[in-house]
Amino acid sequence: MCAGPLLGAVLNSPLGGNALHGGIVLLVLAAGTALPLFPLAFLWAHLPVVRRLEQLSTFVDQVVSDEC
User: Fold this and answer.
1) Minimal CB count within 10 Å: which of 6, 17, 35, 68?
2) pLDDT band for position 58 (50/70/90)?
3) Where are the domains of the chain?
């Protein structure tokens, strides 16, 4: 998803024209974007799909290094 249109809508929305209010809205937008990534970052190494990709990456590295 592209964040540009959402960010443009937030920055151009008629929220009273107060800089403090706009800063708070921007802070909430940034927090809403970043906060869901923290659990993903902490759980990343424990996800089965990531472990499988690591195994595949190791296999590909071995194949490529054997050919060189």
Assistant:
1) 68
2) confident
3) 1-35, 39-68
